[in-house]
Amino acid sequence: MEDFESCKNDLMLLGSELSELFSAAGGFSGPKAGPFSAWADNTTVLTRQMAEGLLRIAVVGAIKSGKSTFVNAFFGGDFVKRGAGVVTSIVTRIATGKDLSARVTLKSWHEVNEELAQTLVLFPSPPLSDDGAPLDIRKDSDRERIRQALSSLDRDRLVNREGRDPNFTLLSCFVAGFEKMKGLVTTGAQTLILAGDDFGRHRDFVGDENLAVYLKDVLLTLPPLDDFPKQVEIADCQGADSPNPLHLAMIEDYLVRTHLIVYVIGSRMGLRRADVRFLTLIRDMGLWENMVFVVNVDISEHESLERLESLLARIREEIALVVPAPRVLAFSALLDLFSKSREPLAHRDQDRLAQWRAQEEIASFCGRESGDFFSWLTRRLTADRMKLLLQSPAERMRIMTAGVLDWARVRRAMLRTDSDKATEAFSRIEKERRNMEKVRLLIRDTLEGALLSGKRELGREVDRFFDQSRGELLTNTRTFLTKLAVSPAAPGPGDPSVSTAVYAAYTEIRSAADRYLTDTVNPAIVNFVLARERDIQELFLKIETPFATMAQEAVDRYNQALASLSAAAGFSGPARPSSVSVSAIKQARNLSLPPLSANIPRNPLVQTEALAHEGALRLFSSVKKLLGIRPDPVTAKEKALERAISRIKEQSWETISENFTDFRENLKHQYLYKLMDMGAREILGNLDDRFRAFLEGTSAGETQTAGRENAGADLEAGLAQLEARAAALTERISSLCAACAGAESFSG
Fold it and tell me: Which residues, listed in sequence order, are joined to residue 221 by a DSSP beta bridge?
């Protein structure tokens, strides 16, 4: 199989040569310039797509499984922070470029204050600024108010069934990290470029949760590596068992854009409950076929190779219960990292490396497995990149080059034909040319009709899926919220306020709703979208097949007319290019799903209503006592809390419903319809590239033929040279197309 980089470089070089070829051909076609100007523009676009295309690999797994160590071993150095805090809500992306640098994008002060406001709004004693304006963390007085609000919380309520209260943690981190970040965050977008000696500073941001809350994105750029393919991005994702469901939603957003998922499992703990839950989610999203498993071996924990292999067999069996026929390899990421490191190891790490190598059986096993994994990955990436980044551009370039070759052959045949015969032939050619234009317009109209019909059907499918009254997705979500059992500790007799209980209720509902969205709703949406993408792919194939037949029939008739000029004249026809690929279109146009994560904002009126309701009930209870009526055993506080819980659920559903509506419309208009439009343009582009040689090129032939006696041998020689160049380029591009098609067959 030809190497991807070699194949891409050859195609990029051919792009330059094609531009020169089209320029030379345009010199023979007179003022009209024939199809060559459009082909030159197309070639520029195609070469840019090949240069900019990117494949993405997501490295996922539970916390402390060795994901960051695996990524570092992949690149042969300690680039990514190992053991980052669980609060970190950042997917760290790594790609190769010119120099070593880290691009750290920060939130603006407006975004920070918006998060603070949303988090504080339902606090039992929400802090207020002096003038009633929204809190601004930049003010000393407002930060002090936030600290007081945090200290007022009941410490027993800061830990729920999911772990630490994420609201308390977020606020604490913002306040604790302010002093270090106040000189970096600005009123607008701010990106720090950390290069040279400053590169390592990105670890301080990612590894410290007090600073990580201020981040929006982190991209590490490493110098090109000999053993690492270019145009590949690897993402070190936060732990799938993070206590914050929104972290999982961010991982899901990245997963739907990836081409390969590497799932890391630590050998010390084996497959954990969090792993099973996350693997089930990936399976339900329909992404499991693009997943490979790496068991990160902690050599110090295993006494013998036999016991390690027994553990691996059990892990494979457990994975197979969730994901069918998993590909599982096992090696030590830390052993790989130490072995590949370009920097001197610390004495402690040198001792560990020597100790591991002394366990020869396990170390040799890990070495073989590591070699097998990276060999497999290289073949897989080569096949995927050729298929997604090169195959379609190569086919388009082949069509255009063959068009120049055929055009030059026909021009030479016209020059060799006597005037009487040429006049008769041109009459037939012009008739077929007009017929071909009709075929082209018919294809365009038919495609537009098929596209419009396909969009209508697709729109109905999407609307049915997100229907609030009959759609299973939304009705189930509403049922979940309605039946959700909320059990915050009711305020006792000694507690003068219901505020704390309302806050606890909101936190519990918000956490449960977020978890339901990430665990159940998002996978269902992704699976639905993948099914619609398959429908679009089938529609493309259904459209292309009759169009290719119509085009070939038009070419055959046209060639019959040309045959009267010379046996050598004739177009080879639009040799069928590979079918338009949905995956390739998404890759070339950088098209991705709208974000899956949805925020459920807090409404301060819930707390106000609850307090007012409690006051009214107290007054009513007092009146009943005065009238001698036996008091209700349910206290006013309990009733107020019950009403508040009902309102929180209602407002949560309203927000989720609105988010679904927005997502539905964005999914249709910004993703699925765009995908169809891009595919239709590519189908038309493939046909137009081929038809241009007929519809634009031959009309200049009559002029050339009429002046052939004056042009003489110079024109004949020039066209012969052009034909030879086009033939050589066509042969080279055809071999590259074959290489791309061969890469597509990789299935290991």
Answer: 95, 101
Paired with 105 in beta bridges are 191, 217
Whole-angstrom distance, CA of residue 355 vs CA of residue 298: 12
Q: β-strands 190-195, 215-222: how paired?
A: unpaired
CA distance 525 to 520: 9
Tell me the angle at which helices 472-483 and 499-516 cross, rounded to the nearest 10 degrees.
Answer: 150
Measured on CA atoms in the order 172, 178, 184, 189, is the torsion positive or negative?
positive
3-state secondary structure 30-51: HHHCCCHHHHHHHHHHHHHHHH
* Ranges assigned E (strand) in 62-189: 92-96, 101-106, 159-160, 163-164
- pLDDT tens column, 179-215: 999 999 999 889 999 998 899 888 888 878 889 889 9
Pick from 520, 518, 462, 519: which is nearest to 670 by CA?
A: 462
Residues in the chain, overall count: 748
- Which of residues 396 and 245 earns the better pLDDT score? 396
The 10s digit of each residue's pLDDT in 295-334 is: 999 998 888 999 999 999 999 999 999 999 999 999 999 9
Q: Amino acid letter at 313?
A: A
Q: Residues 416-435: what's their mean pLDDT?
A: 70
CB 690 within 8 A of CB 616: no
d(CA 297, CA 332): 4
Distance, in Å, from the CA atom of 458 to the CA atom of 453, rounded to the nearest integer, reads 9
